[in-house]
Design brief:
Layout lengths: L1 H6 L21 H10 L18 H11 L19 H11 L19 H12 L22
Helix pairs in contact: 3-4
Length: about 150
C-alpha cells in the first residue's frame, strides 16, 4: 500500500479506516488507512489487513486496477486460469490491454502465485507510463508524469 500511497502524493488518511492488525505506529499505517478509505484494498477480512501475508498476482492487479479508477474494458483477457467474469477478470483484461501486466505464459496468468518484487516494479513502471490506462475515477497522482519515482 505504501507505493500506491506515495504515488498519490502521500495524502493524509482518515483515522477511522484502520485495520485491527495494523498498529498506528507501523510505517505503513497511514498508507493502509488511506488505501482502505479510497477502496484500493479491503484487507483480507473486514477487520484485518494481514500485513505478513504474501500478495498474489491477482490481488495486486485488482488493487492496481482500483487505483486506476476501475476502468471497464470487459473480461476478454484470453487466460485459461482466469474467470470470464468478475472483478479479477476485469482487472486482468485492463492490465493486459495496456500491457501493464502479462501472463506467466501466453495462456496463463497464474492468479495464485505470489507477486515478486520485480513484477511489482515492472507493473508500477508500466502503469506510470500509460496515461491512457487510467479511468475517469482514478486516484489522482501526487506527481507529474513522466517524472514519477517509486
Amino acid at each position: 500500500m505504501v507505493f500506491f500511497h506515495r504515488m498519490a502524493g502521500s495524502p493524509t488518511s482518515p483515522l477511522g479506516a484502520h485495520f485491527d492488525d495494523v498498529p498506528s505506529s507501523a510505517y505503513f499505517s497511514v498508507a493502509t488507512r488511506w488505501a482502505r478509505a479510497k477502496g484500493v484494498t479491503a484487507g483480507c477480512t473486514s477487520t484485518s489487513f494481514c500485513p505478513a501475508n504474501n500478495v498474489t498476482r491477482s490481488q495486486f492487479v485488482v488493487m492496481l486496477h482500483r487505483f486506476a479508477g476501475s476502468p471497464n474494458h470487459g473480461t476478454s483477457h484470453g487466460f485459461s486460469d482466469v474467470a470470464t467474469s468478475g472483478e479479477v477478470a476485469q482487472a486482468v483484461t485492463w492490465g493486459k490491454k495496456y500491457e501493464i501486466v502479462m501472463g506467466t505464459t501466453s495462456t496463463t496468468f497464474s492468479l495464485g502465485n505470489a507477486v515478486t518484487r520485480a513484477q511489482v516494479a515492472r507493473f508500477l513502471y508500466r502503469y506510470a507510463n500509460k496515461p491512457a490506462a487510467e479511468g475517469a475515477n482514478r486516484i489522482q497522482l501526487g506527481v507529474t508524469r513522466p517524472a514519477q519515482t517509486f
